[in-house]
Design brief:
By secondary structure, the chain is of the alpha/beta class. Among the domains are: 4-125 and 240-258, Peroxisomal Thiolase, Chain A, domain 1 (3-Layer(aba) Sandwich); 267-382, Peroxisomal Thiolase, Chain A, domain 1, CATH 3.40.47. 35% of the residues lie in helices and 18% in strands. Helix 3 packs across helix 12 and helix 9 (283-294) packs parallel to helix 10.
Length: 383
C-alpha cells in the first residue's frame, strides 16, 4: 500500500492583529515559509509537483491564487504550479489532505501544503461584502434556497458557540479556566523554547505575539459577553492573527530518490460535515468516524490538536469523544496563540509533529471546526 510521508514542517511566528506581521504582503508572508521549507528539506524546488495553500477572504493581496504568487515571490522555479483552496478554518489542513491524496494516488511525488492569512490587512469575512452592489451580503442569508431549507434564523459562529455552551452545560467559569490554561501552556512552551525549531523568524520577529502574561481569572471575569446574556467573551474565543505555515508531503519513491528522512506518515485523513447552523460541532462525529475507520481508540492517541475557535467547542468535543484534556493542545491553542484562518491547519500540524517527537508519542490526531459545519481529521504516525 502506498504511503504519504511528512518530510518537514515550518511556520512563521503568529502575529497578533496590528502586530509584527500586519504590514507584510500575504504573498511575501507565504513565500517566506515556502523558501524556508525548501531550504530546510534540501529538496530541489524544481522537483515539487504542486503547491497547495489554504487561504480565506481571497481578495486584495490574498487574491489571484496566492499559492502561485507566494511561490514566485520566494524566487522558486517558474514551472511549479500552485493552487489556493478555501475550506474555511480547515483550509490548510485540507491542503495537506489534497497533497497526501495526490501522493497516495500516484499522480504526484512531492507536494507542498500550507496556508497563509493576513487578517490585519484583510479582515475576517471581508470577501462576504464584495457583492453588496448586487444585494448579496452573505454567502447564505439572501439565498432563497437556503431560506427554504434553514429558515431566516441567524447563522454565525458566535451563536453556534453559545448554543454549544448551553447544550453541553458548559459554564462561563469552566470556559475561563480552560482559556487561562491555554495561555499558561503557550507561555510555558515559549519560555521553554519548544516552538523554536518549528518557527522561521521574520526578520527580528521570532516569538508568537498572542499569549498574554497578564491573563487572570479576574481579568477574564470582568469582560462583557459577546452576545447579550451570553456566556462567551473575547477571552474565550480565538484571536485574530497573521501567519503562514507549510510542510512537504512525499511519496515513497520521492523519499528514496531524494534521500529524505521523513518524520511522520499520514495514518488517516477524512472530512465530515454536521449541521451548518450549529456549525462548530463537526469535530465530534468526524473524530468518531476517524477512530472507527482506523480501528484506533481514543486512548491510542498520544496527542490531540483541536482548534480553539471557542472554548466551548473543545470542551464539548472532549466530553463527547472521551478525550483526556491533559493530552489536548498541550502547548496552548488558538485562544492564546491565535487563529490565522488559512494558516492554522498546518500551524497546528507543525506543532503536533514536533511535540510527538519531543514526547516520543506514536499517534497524533488533529481536528478543526470549520464554516458550514465541516471538520477535517488527520491522524499522524510519528516515524
Amino acid at each position: 500500500m502506498p504511503e504519504a510521508y511528512l518530510v518537514d514542517a515550518v511556520r512563521t511566528p503568529v502575529g497578533k492583529r496590528g502586530g509584527a506581521l500586519a504590514g507584510i504582503h500575504p504573498a511575501d508572508l507565504g513565500g517566506h515559509v515556502l523558501a524556508a521549507l525548501m531550504r530546510r528539506t534540501g529538496v530541489d524546488p524544481g522537483a515539487v509537483d504542486d503547491v497547495i495553500l489554504g487561504c480565506c477572504d481571497t481578495i486584495g493581496g490574498q487574491a489571484g491564487d496566492v499559492a502561485r504568487t507566494a511561490w514566485l515571490v520566494a524566487g522558486l522555479p517558474d514551472h511549479v504550479p500552485g493552487v489556493t483552496i478555501d475550506r474555511q478554518c480547515g483550509s490548510s489542513q485540507q491542503a495537506v489532505h489534497f497533497a497526501a491524496q495526490a501522493v497516495l494516488s500516484g499522480t504526484a511525488d512531492l507536494v507542498v501544503a500550507g496556508g497563509v492569512q493576513n487578517m490585519s490587512a484583510i479582515p475576517i469575512s471581508a470577501a462576504m461584502t464584495v457583492g453588496t452592489q448586487f444585494g448579496f451580503t452573505t454567502p447564505f442569508a439572501e439565498s432563497p434556497g437556503w431560506r427554504a431549507r434553514y429558515g431566516d434564523q441567524e447563522v454565525s459562529q458566535f451563536r453556534a458557540a453559545e448554543m454549544i455552551a448551553e447544550k453541553w452545560g458548559i459554564s462561563r467559569e469552566r470556559m475561563e479556566s480552560f482559556a487561562l490554561g491555554s495561555h499558561v501552556k503557550a507561555l510555558d512552551a515559549i519560555d521553554s523554547g519548544r516552538f523554536a525549531a518549528e518557527i522561521e523568524p521574520v526578520g527580528d520577529f521570532a516569538v508568537d505575539e498572542g499569549p498574554r502574561r497578564g491573563t487572570s481569572p479576574a481579568s477574564m471575569a470582568g469582560l462583557k459577553p459577546l452576545r447579550p446574556d451570553g456566556r462567551l467573551t473575547a477571552a474565550l474565543a480565538s484571536q485574530i492573527s497573521d501567519a503562514a505555515s507549510a510542510l512537504l508531503v512525499a511519496s515513497e519513491d520521492a523519499v528514496r530518490v531524494h534521500g529524505l528522512a521523513p518524520r511522520a506518515r499520514v495514518h488517516h485523513l477524512s472530512v465530515l460535515a454536521d449541521d451548518p447552523v450549529w456549525m462548530l460541532t463537526g469535530p465530534i462525529p468526524a473524530t468518531r468516524r476517524a477512530l472507527a475507520r482506523t480501528g484506533l481508540s481514543i486512548d491510542d492517541i498520544d496527542l490531540f490538536e483541536v482548534n480553539e475557535a471557542f472554548a466551548s467547542v473543545v470542551l464539548a468535543w472532549a466530553a463527547e469523544v472521551g478525550a483526556d484534556l491533559a493530552r489536548v493542545n498541550v502547548n496552548g491553542g488558538a485562544i492564546a496563540l491565535g487563529h490565522p484562518i488559512g494558516a492554522t491547519g498546518t500551524r497546528l500540524m507543525t506543532t503536533l509533529l514536533n511535540e510527538l517527537e519531543r514526547r516520543g508519542g506514536r499517534y497524533g490526531l488533529q481536528v478543526m471546526c470549520e464554516g458550514g459545519g465541516q471538520a477535517n481529521v488527520t491522524i499522524l504516525e510519528r516515524l
